[in-house]
Design brief:
This protein is of the alpha/beta class. It has helices at residues 11-14, 32-36, 45-56, 109-118, 145-148, 162-168, 183-192, 218-229, 246-251, 263-268, 280-290, and strands at 3-4, 27-30, 60-63, 85-87, 92-94, 101-104, 124-130, 133-137, 158-159, 173-180, 199-203, 209-213, 236-240, 254-257, 271-272. The longest helix has 12 residues, at 45-56.
Length: 291
């Protein structure tokens, strides 16, 4: 179930965006990993300048990502203003300035506990996105995953046991992330799919899987945000590269898949641009808006 909240916004974000453009695009939704970011998880100067130019023109820039809000700092949040962020694959819409939750679609805690118990004896490393921030069990550094995924920030959120922590928390659970320790475990989990009908399982990278409520998606969050802002979906441009972007691409008036995307993502989009390593998102935006 999706929960909506009433929140106030700063003056920068609450002002009416009246500047139009030849294509009548009023909002641009941008995936991060595999789209705006290079493989080293950095954002290029060219991409930042291009996105800033959109924001300066009065077009709303909305990150739409599997990351939590903390994972956006140092990348897209260098652009100003960014008034909304779709996080954790659409499970939360937040105000980046305050962290306030505007809307959430959490995983029921009892269901999450059942899922973790189901996978308890498998070679899988789980972490959580919650309304209190990211949470992971002990052993993250020892597993070697900290070195492979330095953008996952768990500095102050280590707990002895995730199931025990979930049993005592009052936080909302937005996403369960999974890093299998072997390709066999990875492929087996993908092949089986979600063991519970209340949750969906998605491959969001070459070696990671993410689990959300069946009601949470970037597409649903984008539609809800646009309804709040009175922006028709025909005035939305979306860019993405992965399975969790497909619904968002199908909903947007203008949809763009990255050159590094898999074929099912490309088939959901109207346009295909260059790869993330070649700043394909910036290239498309520059040509689309400024020729």
């Amino acid at each position: 179930m999706t929960t909506m909240y009433n929140t106030s916004h700063n003056s920068q974000c609450s002002r009416r965006h009246l500047i139009m453009n030849p294509h009548n695009i009023r909002l641009v939704a941008l995936d991060m990993d595999g789209t705006l970011l290079h493989e080293d998880k950095r954002i290029s100067r060219r991409t930042l300048q291009t996105v800033q130019k959109l924001a300066d023109a009065g077009i709303r820039v909305v990150p739409a990502t599997g990351r939590g809000l903390d994972g956006l700092r140092g990348t897209i949040l260098q652009v100003s203003p960014i008034c909304h962020a779709i996080c954790s694959n659409g499970a939360a819409i937040q105000d980046p300035a305050s962290g306030a939750v505007l809307e959430e679609t959490p995983i029921p805690i009892p269901e999450a506990i059942r899922l973790l118990e189901y996978y308890r004896d498998r070679p899988l490393f789980f972490y959580l996105h919650t309304s209190q921030g990211p949470v992971r069990p002990e052993g993250w550094k020892e597993s070697g995953l900290a070195a492979r995924f330095p953008y996952l920030r768990f500095d102050t959120s280590t707990v002895p046991d995730l199931i025990q922590w979930l049993g005592g928390t009052k936080a909302s659970l937005w996403k369960i992330g999974v890093f299998p320790h072997s390709d066999q475990a990875f492929q087996e989990m993908l092949r089986e799919g979600s063991p519970l009908p209340s949750m969906k399982l998605m491959r969001t990278g070459e070696c990671n899987i993410e689990i959300n409520s069946v009601h949470a998606s970037k597409g649903n969050a984008l539609k809800s945000l646009c309804a709040r802002l009175d922006i028709p979906m025909s005035s939305v441009l979306a860019i993405g590269d992965n399975q969790n972007d497909i619904e968002m691409l199908r909903f947007a008036g203008v949809s763009v898949a990255m050159g590094n995307a898999k074929e099912d993502v490309k088939s959901a989009a109207r346009f295909v641009t260059g790869s993330n390593e070649a700043d394909g998102a910036a290239e498309f935006l520059e040509r689309y808006f400024w020729g």
